[in-house]
Amino acid sequence: MSEQKQQPFSFKLLKTDGMARRGEITTPHGVVRTPAFMPVGTQATVKAMYPQQVRELGADVILGNTYHLMLRPTAERVAKLGGLHKFMNWPHTILTDSGGFQVMSLSSLRKMTEEGVTFRSHHDGSKHMMSPERSVEIQGLLGSDIQMQLDQCIGLPAEKKEIEAAMQLSLRWAVRSREQFERMGGPAKGQGLYGIVQGGDNAELRIESARQLAQMPFEGYSVGGLAVGEPQAVMLKTLEVTTPVMPVDKPRYLMGVGTPEDLLESVARGIDQFDCVMPTRAGRHGLAYTRFGKVNLKNARHADDPRPLDAQSNCEATNNYSRAYLHHLVRVNEGLAAMLLTWNNLAYYQYLMQGIRDAIDAGQFEDFRQKTKEDWARGDLEPYSS
Asked: Is-catalytic flag, 275?
């Protein structure tokens, strides 16, 4: 406890370049350099990766999932075993989401009321109740450094009436989440709780949600309810009206996003934190992210190609294994394929984020943005010919 009190949650804005922001979040388990991409460790593991690998690639923070961990192995068991950091051997910052999205998307027989959501586990059908208080209680038991309020996330497109009802309920749940966070002693432990801006693709509702949340004493603020089926243009337009209303002196987190282009364009609109399963999921399905854009290793064009994915990369998975070998591993469904391609993908995401941070520091973000997009547009290397 004493160590945690010495390092209370804080955010320092170090540099701006247009709307792009460079900062640092301090938590009891270290400093998070922003803009930051948070690899997703849904069930207390970043799939196909060792924790030390994830750290060596440049990740300052990873994400754990409240819904999955409350079901297996349970938050109470993790707490008895010393908390999530010790449980998964990750001594750095951990952010946990509220579990609300998974309750809505994975569980069956849901029943939502003002109190919360009653649902049945997608594992065994057991019945559970997720309220704002219970969500924060679980996150407190896990001991995460950054916690999220429970909110209602609905898919898009949706009627304004439905979007507004979800937004207003999320605001009421924000108050209750904060009260529970205070009861759990979160601030004294140096932890942070983020409020979540809702409002779908409606500018008026987004602004109202952001303004009301800004009046509440959250350590950070998130933009939720995007990356739920809407086109990228809608997401970016929503950010353009939302981030200017969000507090300047607090971190801004865009939940569940996204592709490298999503990250680059969202930084340009004032976002500081991201998470997404995309790089790990893509790696398990034979897809690599590189400076040249996406490379599908299932494609037969790679079968006789001795070249690495990117000879200039510092990642061993990217420059030490031939495309032919990676193609072979993918085709025969070897576990090493998922390991190497996940390694490559997370390495590229962290390479991109470091490039973004360096560019903002140098006041050259727009140049970096255009150069990066030009490289993607140029595409992969020409097919190999011996």
From this structure: yes
